[in-house]
């Protein structure tokens, strides 16, 4: 049975997570989720621990059963200009901006966050395997970004983004050596693998 914490504080909580920080290309994507008192789903966990089929099912379940959710992305150009940490945090801010309900407390996966609209926040290391709302956010963000990278793969099939989703796999590195970077690659990241 799922042991994730459903309620961390007595306030209206938004769980936030991002995906794509370590990728060589594509956007960084963040999601924010507010779950309700009656939300029950024992399959939810850190998105990295779930297979594709389970994540796909949970994506629909989360969207249909939470109080509010939102997804935001920032492109490689923003990452190159502001660095990946700031881009990740600003993507989370973007997701929070799009929620239909204003949270009173923000739960963030990881150990870094910039204050958001004077709302108290708590950073939780490995929060996506501890807090239900953060885990739900991690699933929405990962599914959104994986689908986006699969679509970009159709335009640039030589990089294998339909399986590596932009991470620095051996195949991706070899493709960079042979073909060079695309407009979707992050120029501030190490892209040369001679």
Describe what this molecule looks like in 3D.
The chain is of the alpha/beta class and 194 residues long. It has a single domain (13-179), classed as 2-Layer Sandwich (Nucleotidyltransferase, domain 5). It has 6 helices and 5 strands; from the N terminus they run ββαβααββααα. The protein has a 5-stranded mixed beta sheet with strand order 3-2-1-4-5, with helices on both faces. A hairpin with an 8-residue loop joins strand 1 (13-19) and strand 2. Helix 1 (52-65) packs across helix 4 and helix 2 (76-82) packs across helix 3 (84-98). The radius of gyration is 17 Å and the shape is globular. Belongs to the RNase HII family. It catalyses: Endonucleolytic cleavage to 5'-phosphomonoester. It is found in: Cytoplasm. Endonuclease that specifically degrades the RNA of RNA-DNA hybrids. Pfam families: RNase_HII.
Q: What attributes does this structure have?
A:
194 residues, RNase_HII, nuclease, alpha/beta, RNA binding, Ribonuclease HII, cytoplasm, 38% helix, Nucleotidyltransferase, domain 5
**Major sheet description:** 5 strands, mixed
Structurally, the number of domains stands at 1
Number of helices: 6
Read across the widest sheet, the strand sequence of neighbours is 3-2-1-4-5
Percent of residues in helical segments? 25-40%
Class of secondary structure makeup: alpha/beta
* CATH homology-level superfamily: Ribonuclease H-like superfamily/Ribonuclease H
CATH topology: Nucleotidyltransferase, domain 5
Order of helices and strands: EEHEHHEEHHH
Shape: globular
- Head-to-tail CA distance between termini: 47 Å
Family: Belongs to the RNase HII family.
Protein name: Ribonuclease HII
Catalytic activity: Endonucleolytic cleavage to 5'-phosphomonoester
EC number: 3.1.26.4
């Amino acid at each position: 049975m799922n042991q994730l914490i459903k309620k961390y504080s007595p306030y209206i909580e938004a769980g936030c997570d991002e995906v794509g920080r370590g990728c060589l290309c594509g956007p960084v994507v963040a999601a924010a989720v507010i779950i309700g008192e009656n939300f029950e789903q024992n399959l939810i966990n850190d998105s990295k621990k779930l297979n594709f089929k389970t994540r796909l099912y949970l994506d629909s379940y989360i969207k249909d059963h939470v109080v509010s959710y939102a997804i935001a992305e920032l492109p490689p150009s923003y990452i190159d200009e502001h660095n990946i940490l700031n881009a990740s945090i600003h993507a989370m801010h973007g997701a929070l901006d799009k929620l239909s309900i204003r949270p009173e407390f923000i739960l963030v996966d990881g150990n870094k966050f910039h204050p958001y609209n004077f709302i108290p926040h708590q950073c939780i290391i490995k929060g996506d395997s501890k807090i239900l709302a953060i885990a739900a956010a991690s699933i929405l963000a990962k599914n959104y970004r994986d689908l986006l990278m699969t679509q970009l793969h159709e335009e640039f099939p030589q990089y294998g983004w339909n399986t590596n989703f932009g991470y620095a796999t051996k195949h991706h590195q070899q493709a960079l050596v042979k073909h060079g970077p695309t407009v979707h690659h992050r120029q501030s990241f190490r892209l040369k693998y001679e």
